[in-house]
Each structure stands twice: as C-alpha cells, then as structure tokens.
Amino acid sequence: MKSIMLEDRWRKGPWTPQEDKLLAEHVNLHGGGRWNSVSKLTGLRRSGKSCRLRWVNYLRPDLKRGKITPEEESIILELHASWGNRWSAIARSLPGRTDNDIKNYWRTHFKKSTSPSKNNVEKKPKAQLLTQQQDEEMRMTMTMNEVERVAVAHDMQQEMAYVYPFTGMLQGGSPDGSISDGSSEEEVSWGGLWHLDI
DNA sequence: AACCAAGTCAACCGCAGGGGT
DNA sequence: GACCCCTGCGGTTGACTTGGT
Q: GO molecular function of the protein, one example (predicted)?
C-alpha cells in the first residue's frame, strides 16, 4: 500500500501550461538547482528530476527552437567524432540546444546511416573525459573555421530573437502580464498537446 | 479518404558522481 | 571512511505528426 502511495506521489506525463507557469515562476524567483524542493515550494506534484528536465529541455529562456542548421549539424558531427555520445558536452558547444535535442537529432539523422565513431570514446573515467573535453573545447575554439564562426555569430543573433520574448515572459510576464492568454503566438509554441486539465 | 511506416520530440528510467553529514 | 541525498547524464520509450501509397 505504502509503495503505491509513494508511486502515486508524483505526477507523470506531459506537462500542463499551469505546471510550466509554476515551474518557470519558481526558477525565476529562486534560480535553478534544489530541484527536489521545487515540489514542496510550488505545490507541483512533479519529482525534482522531472522539474529539472522540463526546465532544461523546454522552459529555459535561452533555448533555441526550430531545426538544427547545417552549421550546427557540422559541429555536431565533428564533436561527436571526437567525444562520442557525450551529448551534454556537445550541447555546451551549441548555445540554445539541449542534449536531448542533439541526441534526438543524431538518432534520427545519423544513427541508421553511419555507425558512430567510437574512436576516443570508450568508457573512460570521468576526470579523464573532462580533461579530454577541455582539450577538445580548446581545440574547437582554435580550429573552428570561418564558416562556423559566421554561423555561430548568426546563431547568436537568432538566439537573441528567441530569448527576448521568453525572458520577458519569465522575468516580468508577458506584456499583458500573463503567461499566455491563449491567443498569442506563444501559445502555439507552448504546445497544442497540453490543453488538458490536471 | 484511409491506412501504414517513418520521423520527431517530450518525458521517463537507471546509473554514476559529488557533496554533505 | 561510510552512508545518504541530490544532481546530471545517457539510453530508451511512447505518443504524436507527417508523408507516402
């Protein structure tokens, strides 16, 4: 019985706009981290893990939406060749993209056609991976060709365009003072899936 | 128009590592 | 030093969408 109640403690499945709003407001007020306390402080019936994932993969204001560009794709290819499936590390080199984005992209675009390079990517102690990662990051910044530099600069511009509407919402609410009134374009990107009540 | 396969994406799970006690 | 808790990561799954027949 008790285990059933414990399992029942956390809600699962797609997030509702209300939950998103609560989480975004909480992170806006208190910052990220301490995810396990989020449910207590907000009343959300979501695990800390779930909250963190939702924030990182969807609500974060600096997220870039839309398709992976050819420039980003080439960066992914290069970094994956060096690092293998270190998605979070690769994501750090692609501002606005999450490890989940990249992982999904890789799976759908490359996994079938090319077997991932496993050079340098055998299981290694984390510390070793970190040093290698730092080396690679250094190398990336030094060897990034001109096309990629332009691409990154371009991405930064695009990113700003994405960021501001969202940060505006998160930091002070949307111009009309609400997360969504259901009529804004934002509502579209907030997902048609979620129009279900808790 | 209906069906099916492939593609896409959000979310969950299990594990490992780090920090605090 | 051992233990516990929290966080982050990578793998996987399942629902939904899109495109082809």
A: DNA-binding transcription factor activity
Is the confidence at residue A177, as pLDDT, over 60? no
> What span, in angstroms and rounded, lies between the C-alpha atoms of A196 and A187?
14
What local confidence, expressed as pLDDT, does residue A111 receive?
Answer: 65
The pLDDT tens digits of the residues spanning A103-148 come to 888 888 876 554 433 333 333 334 444 445 555 555 554 444 433 4
Whole-angstrom CA distances from A180 to A63, A155, A165, A170, A177 are 18, 27, 12, 11, 9
Are A90 and A99 within 8 A, CB to CB? yes
Both structure tokens of A187: 């509502």
CA at A108, C1' at C18: how many angstroms apart?
14
Instruction: Give the residue range(s) of CATH 1.10.10.60 domains in chain A.
Output: 2-64+163-194, 70-161
Q: Was domain A70-161 assigned CATH 3.40.1190.20?
A: no
C1’ B7 / CA A102, Å: 15
Nearest nt (C1') to A20 (CA)?
Answer: B10
> The domain A2-64+163-194: what is its CATH number?
1.10.10.60
Strand B bases with any atom < 7 A from protein Cβ = 7-14, 16-18
